[in-house]
Amino acid sequence: MIADWLAHHARTRAGRTACIDLGTGRRFTYLQFFERVTRLAGALRTRHGVKHGDRVMVVARNSTDVYEIMFAAWRIGAVFMPVNWRLAPPELEEITRDGEPALVIADAEFLQSLPKNAAPILTRRPGDEASEYERDIAAAAPALEFAAVGFDTMNTLLYTSGTTGKPKGVIGNWRMTTVMQLQAGVSAELTPHCLTLTAAPQFHTAGLNSFATSLFHLGGTLAVMSTWDAETSLRHLADPALGVTHTLGVPTQFLLMSRLPSFATARFPSLQMAAVGGAPPSQALLETCAAQGLPLTPGYGMTEVFGVTHMRADVALSKPGAVGWPAIYTEFRVADEAGRVLAPGDVGEIQIRSAGVTPGYWRQPEATAEAFVDGWFRSGDLGYLDEAGLLYLVDRKKDMFISGGENVYPAEVENLMSGFPEIHQVAVVGVPDPKWGEVGLAVVVLRAGLAASETELIERCRGKIAAFKIPKAVALVNALPLSAQGKVQKNELQKQYAR
């Protein structure tokens, strides 16, 4: 039996704030949130004909409404399917064709991007009480019974970003959800009195689940930003009235906050954990944030298995590159291409075994089979373990390149160069070279008002890393291409500089 979390909190914590929509200023108690969810569930089932196992696709900006839709879909046994609203129409059409949703709930601003006649559409306008979405909630009879589901029942379908090819639908089920909320609760020491600031896109596993699922389970509070920007995020984190205890971001976001003039005087009176994921944070960023009372806690996860590691901020400072020990319900190992487990210190693929790992990819049995070896999920990430079992993330397997027969891990080079005072952001990619096969190219955004030449930046690397790791060229640019999650899109850089 899967517990009806919201019904429990509506009874026992009726007046406690469940969620705050920072974009519209709306906030809902657990009783109010439960009533909205049950009415929306009723509308999905009776007005829109959504049945057990059907997919409900969502194309919407961050909002508390997104969680309403998730819980309403779950309530009737449907599958929650949030999709990246930044995708181009052909990409949305491909995902819609693959996922075959019974209903699409979309913000009005994205209607023109949706494929025509693929599925019925329910239109949402954030905070507009006259919108079709709000009218459905007001008019529907509540669905008070929770659907009969088990741990193996599918409840979520999240599509990967597609940066490595065709997007894959990652299947989520109630077993994954249960493990995820239990692990996050233990690792982050969550209680019903915690409040998380959610700013990452909710079509991504981090934005959707970063402390959020666990806090709904525990009866805590979520504050949701509709879009992320550095100044607003910093203001929310430092606001004693809001009382943020937990948040999550990618290194780029914390870097941009740390470069704000107001960061020097900011205080974070209630903050207990600022988790950072998506890429290894540089040592310089860790030290800068820690000095200002914002210690970052690196974490490691992916769409296929949200939470992998358990980490502490103080360990991160003393162990550069470390992302943690196995989370409470998780095992991992480091293996070579033949599947042999490697000794501590040897770099190989990180492989994971947990009840929190996806059962596979939607309608892609071959991709599912390739993703597992002897019951271990192949992450595609490179790392190593130390003697104490602490995991160090080296780089994405696809980002590594080979120069003159030597493996080069761009994250190592980026970690060095990000400490140069003139550099605001840096991304290193491998580009073709007739002599060495591939060489490193550093794409650099300089800090405002500071200058450095390409030659100077290359020379400054000498003696600090091996010669074969030093970039052979530097490109100075105004901005790096970022995904909706704030990650640098290295595939775009490789396409741009391949020649």
The CATH class of the largest domain: Alpha Beta
The neighbouring-strand order within the major sheet is 2-1-10-9-11-12-13
Structural class: alpha/beta
CATH homologous superfamily of the largest domain, by name?
A: ANL, N-terminal domain
Output the radius of gyration: 23 Å
What is the annotated CATH architecture of the largest domain?
3-Layer(aba) Sandwich
Helical run tally: 16
Q: What is the domain total for the residues?
A: 2
The separation of the N and C termini measures: 57 Å
* CATH topology annotation of the largest domain: Rossmann fold
Q: Biggest β-sheet: count, sense, barrel?
A: 7 strands, mixed
Flag low-confidence runs.
Answer: none
Which range best describes the helical content: under 10%, 10-25%, 25-40%, 40-55%, 55-70% or over 70%? Answer: 25-40%
Oligomer: single chain
**What is the 3D form?**
globular
Strand coverage percent: 25-35%
Mean pLDDT rating = 92
Task: Please give the number of β-strands.
Answer: 25
